[in-house]
Amino acid sequence: MLVEKLGGLSFEIGPIRPPSEGGSRSLLLRVTRNCPWRLCAFCYGIPYRRQKFQLRPVGEVIGDLDQAKAMADLLKEVSLKLGYGGETGESLLKTLLKLDPTLNHHESFLNLFNWLTSGGKTVFLQDADSLITPTQTLAEILRHLKALFPQVERITSYARAKTLTVKPLEDLKLLRSLGLSRLHVGLESGDDEVLKRVNKGVTAREHVEAGRKVIEAGMELSLYVMPGLGSVTLSRQHAENTAKVLNRINPHFVRVRTFLPLPRTPLFDEYKKGSFKLLSPRQCLSEIRLMVEKLEITGRICFDHFVNPSLKNGFPIFRQNYDGYKLPEEKRLLLETVDRALELEESEFRWLEELVGLPCL
Ligand code: SF4
Q1: Is the distance from the beta carbon of residue 361 to the nearest atom of ligand 1 less than 6 Å?
Q2: Is residue 151 exposed (0-12), middle (13-18) or buried (19+ Cβ within 10 Å)?
């Protein structure tokens, strides 16, 4: 009966979250739906199926939090009744799935279960730009979240740099004081020509303004960069200007995501027509090397994604964990890693072309 009740509770979950939030098994709370921009030529809002952007009514989001809390309380009760001492874990999950196999397809139940099992400390606000939500609305959601789950230590979200440029610093400070502690922002490039060509809708100067503001508000900043986005023609300026912008911001994390054409995007069409050439593995490594060489940041640079350069057998060249390499302490090690890889022939690498068509976000 109690298990049946569990299956009847649910909250909405959006399609994506950063891999590091998956690693932390963060609770996923959908604050908005989809992306308000949907025009980046390498993405086009495809991860959100190009669906229209929506601000979710605050009552709906609060309602989702209430469902998550009811589910957490019920799970504790079930765990006590079944002799698991109120704890969640592998064996309780096995028992529950035996009692009700439909729970195996219950997305929000599984998300909440895994979250509680890993300590219930981190939350990720979905979708692509939660910061576009009016500040007072987001503040109300954060207050409710902390009231229901006081054990939460880290709340993170995606945000567009353009949105951050118009958000007052005081608003960001308020959100920080209510627990929003890290933003994931797609920088992609620090070069204006590349940004314009891929229709990012933001300039290098705006990236710097947005990034500095986030840090000044006391939040951690995780910036995504995309080697290969300038193709062969703009490779050098893409690497150099990206390093320049990163140096001016000094983010806590730089997350490297090598460009891979995503079907049904404008850049995919250009790639198919032959007007956009993918970098060869060695060209890509040289571009990464140039950027790293110019970096003067004191954060971490991470290669936590399968699209980044690897050897033919899929063996990664870089560390795959979510913490990557600490700069400047591990800069030399990172450069040596690239230099060792650059001694190999092109044929010894996995070529990006082999991955085209695979979901890469
Ligand atoms: S990269 Fe981000 S901002 Fe650009 S279209 Fe995709 S989801 Fe939207």
Answers
A1: no
A2: exposed
